[in-house]
Sequence to fold (156 residues):
Amino acid sequence: MKTTLLVVGKTVGSELPQMIQTYTQRLKHYISFDIQVIPDLKNTKNLSEQQQKEQEGELILRAVGQSFVVLLDEHGIEYRSLAFAEQLQSWLNTSTRGLTFVIGGAYGFSPAVYNRADAKISLSQMTFSHQMIRLLFVEQLYRAMTILRGEPYHHE
Fold:
């Protein structure tokens, strides 16, 4: 099954993309994984936050198709790494349509995206930039895969 991380906007700078690529390559040893980028909206100065969320939401909904959708959202369930690995295994076992994790833009998700979501997870109660979350998430996804395979990456 294909697993995708869908993100809004490109990652800026050079350090984060390099680190994200490292974990993306490691993940491909375990699962079919890729990162899909929805381009930043144009002329956002003329849009309210809600209008931006709505327009990004339309693009997100087109991109996710029929896959099982997990939003990375501040109101989602927080997991310890072992519990996230178990939940990930459950999603991989039961979802036949693909699995898509979504990181929204700077203002979050539109109501339509929330309505479409099958699950929501939070990586922390703290706030991180949506750029940084990309790295944190791919590392946690990699960690979960090593836990599921009984490999020594995770120490607990």
User: Anything to note?
Assistant: Strands lie at 2-8, 32-38, 68-78, 99-103, 119-122. The first helix runs from residue 15 to 27.
